[in-house]
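S.,

As promised, the zinc ion run. Input:
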Amino acid sequence: MVNETGPRLAELAGQDVPVAAWCLGCGHHRVLAVGDLLARMDGRTAVAAVARRLSCSRCGSRAIETRPHYAGLGVVAGHRWHEE
Ligand SMILES: [Zn+2]
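Predicted complex:
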């Protein structure tokens, strides 16, 4: 199992922060409630790893990226938010 870095779902739940998910295929994005994600996966799941459990509802792509959706940060299309 990959040792993912970054915040975990349980941390976001404690901060009442949702998860923003982007499709790299078509640019579709959604904001997902952490409570819904916790119903399907463990609270120790890294937010970045949630992407691997998702597929795009619009184009079906599995090339998804996820990050915490902190209030006030907004959604910036194409914003580079990690360096891997
Ligand atoms: Zn898509």
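The chain has a mean pLDDT of 86. The chain has one domain: 9-68.

- D.
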